[in-house]
Amino acid sequence: MKTKILLEEEEMPRQWYNILADLPGPLDPPLHPATRKPVTPDDLHVIFPMELIRQEMSPMRNIPIPEEVAEVLRLWRPSPLYRAFRLEQALKTPAKIYFKYEGVSPPGSHKPNTAVAQAYYNMKEGIERLATETGAGQWGSALAFATCHFDLDCTIYMVRASYTQKPYRKIMMQAWGAECFPSPSTRTNAGKAILEKHPDTSGSLGIAISEAVEDAATHKNTNYSLGSVLNHVCLHQTVIGLEAKEQLAKEEVYPDVIIGSVGGGSNFAGISFPFAGEKLKGKQKDVDLVAVEPSACPTLTKGVYAYDYGDVAGLTPLLKMYTLGHDFIPPAIHAGGLRYHGASPLISRLVHDGVMRAVSYHQNEVFEAAQLFARTEGIIVAPESAHAVKGAIDEALKCRESGEEKVILFNNSGHGDFDLSAYESFFQGKLEDYEYPADLIRESLAHLPAGA
Ligand SMILES: *Cc1c(COP(=O)(O)O)cnc(C)c1O
Description:
Helix content is 41%, strand content 16%.
């Protein structure tokens, strides 16, 4: 009975798994924000490299991981799978709890899995600089880390709330050679427009995306890079689930429940898609796929499944997804990476089709789960990852009631070493459980783009 189930470097997957190949029907296509017609590769080529556009729409089930990308991934991959014996004991549950730990990457989360691939393809196509947004700073630091391996410049628009609350991430970005600005900024028209209307805004991912897209679209040598939501991002993250599948096979088990936190959906896609594919093909026993989100930004549980913009300014293509409305600005909860109004079109579709389900929790119960996890398994998890911990604990407690010995797998998407101020607020009893912001959401949903 092992605590850590490890793979050799040679056992790292050589291909990503593309779930588009196994969906029962095609995804509704992204629409051009002006014409409302399906976007063409040429439209996207203004801000993305061709290879990522091909991957975004590819019908191929398996897509090879280039050796140059694998070389960088091997700095920390394959990542360990843990059996959470001590947590099981504390919960007195008959369930077996496993977690994949993505906090071992240099930036400390799953995000470099796609950042490295994106930086590589942009470099290959002659791009010199990447622009992006970041919420809590995990994506910005991941892209800074990745661009530095492929000699690209990197400009990061960081949501102002996190820029002030979490200064260490921006220093990491500097260490890896990137420049970082608080968003909204005065560097872009989108940023200036928001600042005029709301000078004291704490910012949001949607606003920061508008700034980064505008930066990329207005500079020829610059592309845009997105850390979640899109199909190619989910694709690159499947290395997590593919490894986990091999690791669980060494334990001779197959999961009954798979849990992940959802901001844009990429880490949950990463751990779950290789298993969701088996479920779609009817090849394996049914597996319960559970997305966990914050009650303050309840995209999958309270949003609508509709076409909406990915950003506040309406510069991005319209995506068919669960959304709270593109101008919804969520309360400033500490899980900054989960403060997004939309969700991956792939995850949205699978939730809509009933292949996956979603639950939501308030911050205090999430931090209580994180505290128990720290005191049993030792790892101080990121506030985002703590949502998955909470989901796993609840499933394990259900097993205690029912006596079922389920195999629970969750994705521990990152460590919380730079989120200790959030833990401090929790210990001091200062964390606010925001009510479901029904009025704000009703208002923003009234602004969904018409005619899509
Ligand atoms: C960004 C982030 C998330 C949420 O983003 P997804 O795209 O939904 O995965 C979750 N956990 C950590 C540690 C993150 O950095």
